[in-house]
Write a structure and sequence with these properties.
The structure is a single chain. This protein is an alpha/beta fold. It has 7 domains: about 220 residues, P-loop containing nucleotide triphosphate hydrolases (Rossmann fold, 3-Layer(aba) Sandwich); about 90 residues, Enzyme I, Chain A, domain 2 (Orthogonal Bundle), CATH 1.10.274; about 110 residues; about 260 residues, 3-Layer(aba) Sandwich (Rossmann fold); about 160 residues, PCRA, domain 4; about 160 residues, Alpha-Beta Complex (Lambda Exonuclease, Chain A), CATH 3.90.320.10; about 40 residues, no CATH class. About 50% of the residues lie in helices and about 15% in strands. The chain is built from 46 helices and 31 strands. The strands form 8 sheets. Strands 18-17-19-16-20-24-13-25 form an 8-stranded mixed sheet. Strand 28 and strand 29 form a beta hairpin. Helix 7 packs across helix 8, helix 10 runs antiparallel to helix 11 and helix 22 crosses helix 30. About 5% of the residues have low confidence. GO terms for molecular function: 3'-5' DNA helicase activity; 3'-5' exonuclease activity; ATP binding; double-stranded DNA binding. It catalyses: Couples ATP hydrolysis with the unwinding of duplex DNA by translocating in the 3'-5' direction; ATP + H2O = ADP + phosphate + H(+). Keywords: ATP-binding, Coiled coil, DNA damage, DNA repair, DNA-binding, Exonuclease, Helicase, Hydrolase, Isomerase, Nuclease, Nucleotide-binding. Its EC number is 3.1.-.-, 5.6.2.4.
Length: about 1250
C-alpha cells in the first residue's frame, strides 16, 4: 500500500473516504453504502490523479448510465476550473488547463460507448465494415428478429425433423408455437450476456447426462443436497428439543410419540447424508404424523403447546422437502432428465442457428445492436491461440495507455463486461490498477443480467487481501438517524449470504454522517396499514365514496396523510439554507414497485387536489384510447375479428350501446360478428342500421387507404375523421391520453423508417409487444413544478428525497419466472420441464429443480435489495404503506417470526414465495420492544433490546377514510368562508384604489417609441369635429389631460376590391403627383414628356389610370419654370429626392406638454427633396392640398401652420444628418401655384 497523505484538519472527508481517494498500487473495491458520497470520492480521486501529473485521457472511467457520465464530466470540469483559478504555479496551472481541453474527449462514458470507440478505431482486427448504423429502435430490432426467426422456423418445419417437432410440442400448445419462439428469444438474450455465447450454449446439455446417476451429479451435490440436508437437520434439531421438553411425569405418551417420529426423521437424514436417495425418498413418503398426544393437565399445558408448535414447524419442513426437492422419486427424475437431453440438444442447435442468422442479417443491413458492441469489442481485445486467449494489439495499447480503470456501480456489471474490463486493466494483481465503486446491497438490475456475485467475490477476497483491497464507506450523509436506525433494524435480521447474498454485519450497517438535523420526535418512520375488511356500519356509505379495492384504500390513506403534512406545515430541514422550513409538495416522492397503479394514483390525487409529477402514467397498452386504436387497426387489417370489432363498435368511434350490440348478434348467430353487422344492415333501416352503414363506409375507406398509404397517414386520417384525438382530451388525464395517441403515430413513423412495411406487420408487432408487456412509448406528464413526484424504486436509485412514501408494500413477490417451462442461470445453464408426449403432463427435471431453487433465492435476494434502495432514499421522513385484511391478520402474519431465537431469520421464512416486502418489514419489527404496545401476547425482545430504532404503526379502513375526507372537505369550506370574509373587508378599499388609480406613465402608453413624421403632423393639426365632439363629452377630464401623443386613424384604408366605381380621392392624386415628381428627369419638362411618364407609371401599375388623368400636369410645368425649379435643374447633381431619415428625439421636444422628459422617440420620414450647397441646404416639400380662397392670407397661414411642425422636423433631421445648416425650407403648394419659404 502506498503512503497516504495526512488528512488536513479542515477536510470534510472521513478517514475511509480519504483512503479511497489516495490509496493506489493495488486493485481497490470501495463498498459504498447508500448516501456515503461515492461520486464525490470518485471525482476527488480523479482530481488527485491529475494533480500527480496524470492526463485525463490516461484514465478510463466507466459509468452505468449516460446521465451519470455527464454528471461526472461536469463535476470534474468544475473541480478543474477551480484548480486553474486557485493555482499559483504556472506549470501546474498549464497542466490543469490542458486537462480542461482534453476533458470533452476523455474516456468518461458507459461501457457501451467506450466499446463503440474501440470498434471504430480497431475494426480492421476483426474484419468488420466500419460504416455501420446503431440499431437503437426497438421496433426495428424486434421485427428483424421476428423476420429471421420466421425464415428459420419455416426451414426447420420443412425438414420434418422429429426432434424439432418434439421441441415445439414441449414448449408450445395446440393454438400456436409462440412458446418456442419466446424460449429461443429469451435463451438468445441470456446467452449473449456471457463472454462466449456459443460455448455457453454448447455446455447446456452436460447437466442432462447423468452418467453416474442423479445422486453423484454436480447439480444435485452442489445445489440440492445442501438445502435438503439443512432442512432435515433442522427437523432433527427440533425433535431433539421436543424430546427434551417431553420428559417427566404426565408426558409419557407425548414423549413416546415424538421419540418415534424422531427416529424416522433421523433415518431420513442418514439416508440423505449417505446419498441413498431412493431409500430416503421412500422413507419420506412413508413418514406419517398421528394426532398429537398432548397432556390434559393444566400445569403441563405450556409445555404441550410449545412441543406442538415445534412439531407443526417440523411437519411443514418435511412437506416442503417433498414439494420443493422431490416432486417425483429420484429414479423418475433421473429418467425424466435423460429423456429431456435430446430436447436440450435440439434447443441449443436451434438457438445457435437463430444467433447465426440474426448476426448475418445485421451484417447484411450494416447495423449493430448494443449487445454487439460489447461482443465485438471483446473480440478486438483478444487473440485466440491453440492453448489460450492472449491480449491483442488493441488490448496492449489500452493497457499501456490507461494508468487506472475506474468503474462506477460495479455491482451492476455482468460477466461479459467483466471480461472486457479484464483486457483493459493491468493483469498482474500485484500491480493492480482497477478502482471499483458500488454497493451490492443496491444491485437491483437482474433483468439487465447484472451479476452481483462479481462484486461479492471481490468483497470477500479483498477482505483477505487476495487480489486487491477493499474499503468500506458506511457513513451516510443523506438521512436522519431515525431512517438509518430503522433500516439497520430491518436488514440486520433479513440479509445474509443465504438470502441477500451478503452479510449485513457491522461493516455494512449505516452510520449517520450528517449531524446538522435538529432533534425532533416527529421523524420516526411510520407504517401505514389499510384494513381491507369492512366493519359493519349503520351509516350508509354513498356509492361514490365506496373504495373499489385495497389499492384505492392505500392511495387515499397516503393522499390524506400528505394533505395533513402540508396543511399542518410540517417542518423539515433544508440543507441548502441550513434551517427548518414548512414542507412543500416537491419535497415528497411516492415510490412504487411497478407502474401499474400510476393512473389510479393520478385520479385519486386529483380528487384530493394534490399536484403530481409523473412519468408513465399507466401501462401504455392498457390505456383505453390505445386499446381502441389497436382494435381499429386490427379491424382494418382483417374485419372478421369479433373482439376488435365489438370493441370499436362500443367505443366512441361508433358509439353503440350494449343492447344494440345484442341486436346485431341476433341478426346472424351462426357466423362471425362482422357477418352479423352486414346482415343487420341489410335487413333493417333504423337508426342503428344508419350508424352501421356510416361506419362501414369509413372502414372501407380506411382499408383502401391502408393499401396505398403509410400507417402514419392512416392514423392521422382516423384521428381527423373520428375527432378521437380531440375527444380524449375531455377525459380524465386527457393530456396523457392525447400524448399516448401522438406516441402511437411516432411509433408508426419509426416502424416505417425501418426495413418493414405494411399494416399487417405493424399489427403483428404491436401484438408481440403486448404479449411481452412492453410499452411502445413513455409520454411524460409534468403537471406542476411544486408537485409530489411518482416513480418506481428502480428509477429512484441514486436519488434522495426529504419525505418518502413506499407504496404497495404488501404486493406479493413476482415469481412468475419460476412457473415457466424453462429457467436460466449463468453458471447452472438451462433447466426445462419435460412434457410426457402421451399424457401431456409436465415434470420437473433435475436441472430445472436446481435452477428454480437458485433463481428463487436470487429473485428474493433482489427484492430484499430493492427494499434497501427504497428505504435509503428518504432523507428525513419515511412512510411505508400496505394493506392487510385487518389488524389481526397483520399481527398473525408478522408473528411467524416472533419465536425465532437467532437474530437473522431462517432462510425458509425469508424465502416464502407468497410473501411481500411488508411481511419482511413486519418480521423485523415483531421482536422489537416498540412493537409490544401493539401486541396482545408478549414476545421476547431480548435480541433487539439494545436497538435504538423507533417507529409507529397506524391503521385506517374505508369508514375512517370517508370520515377524514369529510373533515377535509368541511375544513376547506370553513377556510373558504373565512377567506371570503377577510377579503370582503378589504375588497371595497381595493376596488376604490384600483378605480381611482392614475397610471403615472399614461403619456408613454399613448405614444410609441417609433413614429412617422406624417403621424406627428396629424397631431400638430387642430382636432377634427369627431375629436372635438369626444373631448366635449369627456367632461370629467381636462383637455390637457386628454392630450394624445399618437395619431390613430379611425377608418382603415379600403381594400381595392371595394374601391371600384368610386371617385378618385385627393390623397390618391397627391401620392401619384409625388411619385411623378420623384421620377421625372431634372430637366425642363413639357406636357408631352409628363404625360408620357405618367403612362409609363400606369403600365408599371405604379399609378392607377383614373388617378393619372387627375394629375395637374400644368402645376408641374409651372414649378419647373419658377426660380426654385430652375435652380434645381441647374444643380441637379446636388439634388436628392425622396430622401429617408431617422432621428432620435426626447419626447418633450416633439410634444410641448409631454410629462415624462426621460422618454425618447425614434422619428422617421421621407423628405421630398433638398439641394445641397457648399455650406448650407435648401429643403422643399410638395403639397397638393385644395385651398378654397388662395388669395385669403388667413387660409394660406392655416396651411403653413398645418405643415410647419412637420417641416421643422425635416429641417432638424437633415441638418443633423449632413452637419450643415438649413437656409430655406420651401413649402410648394402646387394646386394654387405658390411657394412659401417658412424660414423667412
Amino acid at each position: 500500500m502506498n503512503q497516504i497523505p495526512l488528512k488536513p484538519q479542515n477536510e470534510r472527508f472521513t478517514d475511509d473516504q480519504w483512503q479511497a481517494i489516495f490509496d493506489q498500487g493495488d486493485n481497490l473495491l470501495v463498498s459504498a453504502s447508500a448516501g456515503s458520497g461515492k461520486t464525490t470520492v470518485l471525482v476527488r480521486r480523479v482530481i488527485e490523479k491529475l494533480k500527480m501529473g496524470f492526463d485525463i485521457d490516461e484514465l478510463l472511467i466507466v459509468t452505468f448510465t449516460e446521465a451519470a457520465a455527464r454528471e461526472m464530466k461536469e463535476r470534474i470540469q468544475e473541480a478543474l476550473q477551480e484548480a486553474v483559478n486557485s493555482e499559483s504555479d504556472p506549470v501546474r496551472r498549464q497542466h490543469f488547463t490542458k486537462q480542461l481541453v482534453l476533458l470533452p474527449t476523455a474516456n468518461i462514458s458507459t461501457l457501451h460507448a467506450f466499446c463503440l470507440t474501440v470498434i471504430r478505431r480497431y475494426y480492421y482486427l476483426i474484419d468488420i465494415d466500419p460504416v455501420f448504423r446503431m440499431l437503437t429502435d426497438e421496433t426495428e430490432t424486434i421485427l428483424m428478429k421476428e423476420d429471421v426467426w420466421d425464415e428459420l422456423r419455416e426451414a426447420l418445419y420443412a425438414e420434418n425433423d422429429e426432434r424439432f417437432f418434439q421441441l415445439t410440442m414441449n414448449f408450445s400448445n395446440d393454438r400456436s408455437d409462440d412458446g418456442l419462439t419466446n424460449l429461443v428469444f429469451s435463451l438468445y438474450e441470456f446467452a449473449r450476456a456471457n463472454p462466449d455465447p456459443q460455448k455457453w450454449l454448447e455446455q447446456l446439455s452436460n447437466n442432462y447426462r447423468l452418467t453416474e446417476g442423479l445422486a453423484k451429479s454436480r447439480l444435485y451435490q452442489e445445489q440440492i443436497r445442501p438445502l435438503v440436508l439443512a432442512d432435515i437437520y433442522q427437523c432433527v434439531q427440533l425433535y431433539e428439543q421436543m424430546t427434551q421438553l417431553a420428559q417427566g411425569e404426565g408426558l409419557e405418551k407425548m414423549h413416546e410419540q415424538v421419540a418415534g417420529e424422531q427416529q424416522q426423521i433421523k433415518n431420513v437424514y442418514e439416508a440423505f447424508l449417505q446419498d441413498r436417495l431412493e431409500e430416503a425418498y421412500a422413507s419420506l413418503e412413508q413418514l406419517t404424523f398421528s394426532t398429537f398426544k398432548s397432556s390434559r393437565k393444566a400445569e403441563l399445558k405450556e409445555i404441550s403447546n410449545e412441543v406442538k408448535g415445534m412439531r407443526d414447524k417440523a411437519k411443514k419442513l418435511i412437506q416442503q422437502i417433498s414439494k420443493s426437492y422431490f416432486p417425483v422419486s429420484p429414479s423418475q427424475m433421473e429418467e425424466l432428465t435423460e429423456k429431456a437431453l435430446p430436447l436440450v440438444e435440439e434447443m441449443t442447435k436451434v438457438t445457435q442457428s437463430f444467433m447465426d442468422g440474426f448476426s448475418m442479417r445485421k451484417r447484411e443491413k450494416g447495423v449493430l445492436d448494443f449487445n454487439d458492441l460489447e461482443h465485438l469489442a471483446l473480440q478486438i481485445l483478444t487473440e485466440k491461440t491453440k492453448d489460450a486467449w492472449l491480449p491483442s494489439e488493441a488490448s496492449k495499447h489500452y493497457r499501456k495507455k490507461f494508468k487506472e480503470v475506474m468503474v462506477d456501480e460495479y455491482q451492476d456489471v455482468n460477466q461479459l463486461q467483466e471480461a472486457i474490463l479484464y483486457w483493459l486493466r493491468e493483469p498482474d494483481d500485484t500491480k493492480g490498477n482497477m478502482f471499483m465503486v458500488g454497493d451490492v446491497k443496491q444491485s437491483i438490475y437482474s433483468f439487465r443480467l447484472a451479476d452481483p456475485s462479481l462484486f461479492i467475490g471481490k468483497y470477500e477476497n479483498f477482505s483477505k487481501k487476495e487480489g486487491g483491497r477493499r474499503i468500506v464507506l458506511a457513513e451516510n450523509f443523506r438521512s436522519r438517524k431515525e431512517v438509518l436506525s430503522f433500516t439497520n433494524l430491518i436488514f440486520e435480521q433479513l440479509m445474509d449470504p443465504a438470502v441477500g447474498q451478503i452479510n449485513y454485519d457491522e461493516a455494512a450497517k449505516l452510520i449517520q454522517g450528517f449531524s446538522d438535523f435538529p432533534e425532533n420526535e416527529q421523524f420516526e418512520p411510520e407504517i401505514m396499514i389499510y384494513e381491507k375488511e369492512q366493519e359493519e356500519s349503520e351509516i350508509e356509505i354513498p356509492t361514490d365514496d365506496i373504495l373499489e379495492d385495497k389499492t384505492e384504500g392505500e392511495l387515499f390513506m397516503t393522499g390524506l396523510k400528505i394533505r395533513q403534512l402540508i396543511d399542518s406545515s410540517f417542518m423539515i430541514y433544508d440543507k441548502k439554507s441550513k434551517k427548518s422550513r414548512p414542507i412543500e409538495y416537491r419535497d415528497i416522492v411516492l415510490l412504487t414497485p411497478t407502474k401499474k397503479n400510476n393512473l389510479t394514483i393520478l385520479e385519486i390525487f386529483k380528487t384530493l387536489d394534490i399536484p403530481l409529477e409523473m412519468n408513465d402514467a399507466q401501462n401504455y397498452f392498457q390505456a383505453t384510447e390505445i386499446r381502441t386504436m389497436i382494435s381499429l387497426l386490427q379491424l382494418i387489417d382483417n374485419p372478421y375479428q369479433d373482439i376488435p370489432l365489438a370493441a370499436v363498435l362500443r367505443s366512441p368511434v361508433v358509439g353503440l350501446i350494449e343492447p344494440e350490440l345484442a341486436s346485431i348478434r341476433l341478426a346472424d348467430r351462426a357466423h362471425t360478428y362482422y357477418d352479423a353487422v352486414l346482415a343487420y344492415q341489410a335487413s333493417n333501416e333504423d337508426e342503428l342500421a344508419v350508424k352501421l352503414e356510416h361506419f362501414g363506409k369509413q372502414l372501407d375507406h380506411w382499408r383502401e387507404l391502408a393499401r396505398r398509404s403509410s400507417i402514419t397517414d392512416l392514423l392521422w386520417d382516423i384521428y381527423y375523421e373520428t375527432g378521437y384525438l380531440e375527444y380524449v382530451v375531455g377525459l380524465p388525464a386527457g393530456a396523457q391520453r392525447q400524448a399516448n395517441l401522438y406516441a402511437l403515430v411516432d411509433r408508426a413513423k419509426a416502424y416505417e423508417q425501418s426495413s418493414f412495411r405494411g399494416l399487417y406487420q405493424f399489427v403483428r408487432f404491436i401484438e408481440k409487444m403486448q404479449e411481452k408487456d412492453k410499452d411502445l412509448a413513455e409520454p411524460v406528464i409534468s403537471i406542476e413544478d411544486n408537485a409530489v413526484r411518482v416513480m418506481t424504486i428502480h428509477a429512484s436509485k441514486g436519488l434522495e428525497f426529504p419525505v418518502v412514501f413506499l407504496l404497495d408494500m404488501t404486493k406479493e413477490f413476482n415469481l412468475q419466472d419460476l412457473r415457466n417451462r424453462y429457467a436460466f442461470e449463468e453458471k447452472l445453464g438451462v433447466g426445462i420441464r419435460y412434457m410426457d408426449p402421451e399424457t401431456r403432463v409436465l415434470y420437473d427435471t433435475l436441472p430445472f429443480q436446481a435452477i428454480k431453487l437458485a433463481k428463487q433465492n436470487k429473485l428474493l435476494s433482489e427484492e430484499m435489495r430493492k427494499l434497501y434502495v427504497g428505504l435509503t432514499r428518504a432523507e428525513q421522513k419515511l412512510f411505508i404503506v400496505g394493506s392487510y385484511k385487518n389488524k389481526e391478520q397483520m399481527i398473525q402474519t408478522w408473528s411467524e417470526a416472533a419465536d425465532h431465537e437467532e437474530l437473522v431469520f431462517d432462510p425458509a421464512l425469508r424465502l416464502k414465495g407468497r410473501s411481500s416486502l411488508m411481511n419482511w418489514i413486519g418480521y423485523g419489527l415483531i421482536r422489537h420492544p416498540e412493537m409490544q404496545k401493539y401486541l396482545e401476547e408478549e414476545v421476547s425482545t431480548s435480541l433487539l433490546q439494545d436497538s435504538n430504532a423507533q417507529f409507529s404503526i397506524s391503521w385506517m379502513n374505508q369508514q375512517s377514510i370517508i370520515e377524514q375526507r369529510q373533515v377535509l372537505a368541511e375544513k376547506e369550506l370553513v377556510n373558504l368562508d373565512q377567506q371570503m370574509k377577510e377579503e370582503e373587508t378589504v375588497l371595497a378599499d381595493s376596488l376604490q384604489k384600483r378605480l381611482a388609480y392614475e397610471y403615472p406613465y399614461q403619456a408613454s402608453s399613448q405614444t410609441t417609441s417609433y413614429q412617422s413624421v406624417s403621424e406627428i403632423k396629424r397631431l400638430f393639426e387642430d382636432p377634427d369635429d369627431t375629436q372635438e365632439s369626444r373631448l366635449t363629452l369627456e367632461s370629467s377630464q381636462t383637455k390637457a389631460a386628454s392630450r394624445q401623443f399618437r395619431y390613430t386613424q379611425e377608418q382603415l384604408a379600403e381594400p381595392k376590391f371595394l374601391q371600384k366605381d368610386r371617385q378618385v380621392s385627393a390623397a390618391a392624386v397627391g401620392t401619384a403627383t409625388h411619385a411623378l415628381l420623384q421620377l421625372l428627369p431634372l430637366e425642363m419638362p413639357t406636357t408631352e414628356s409628363i404625360n408620357q411618364k405618367l403612362q409609363e407609371l400606369v403600365k408599371k401599375r405604379l399609378i392607377d389610370e383614373k388617378v393619372a388623368k387627375k394629375v395637374d400636369v400644368s402645376s408641374i410645368i409651372w414649378f419647373f419654370q419658377t426660380e426654385l425649379g430652375q435652380q434645381l435643374i441647374a444643380n441637379k447633381e446636388n439634388v436628392k429626392r425622396e430622401q429617408p431619415f431617422s432621428m432620435l428625439l426626447s419626447a418633450d421636444e416633439v410634444f410641448q406638454d409631454y410629462p415624462n422628459q426621460e422618454d425618447e422617440l425614434l422619428i422617421h420620414g421621407i423628405v421630398d427633396g433638398y439641394l445641397e450647397e457648399k455650406d448650407h441646404l435648401h429643403i422643399y416639400d410638395f403639397k397638393t392640398d385644395f385651398i378654397l380662397h388662395p388669395d385669403d392670407p388667413a387660409e394660406i397661414d392655416a396651411i403653413v401652420q398645418k405643415y410647419q411642425g412637420q417641416l421643422r422636423l425635416y429641417q432638424q433631421a437633415m441638418s443633423e444628418a449632413l452637419n450643415k445648416p438649413v437656409e430655406n425650407v420651401f413649402l410648394i403648394l402646387l394646386r394654387v401655384k405658390r411657394i412659401i419659404n417658412i424660414n423667412k
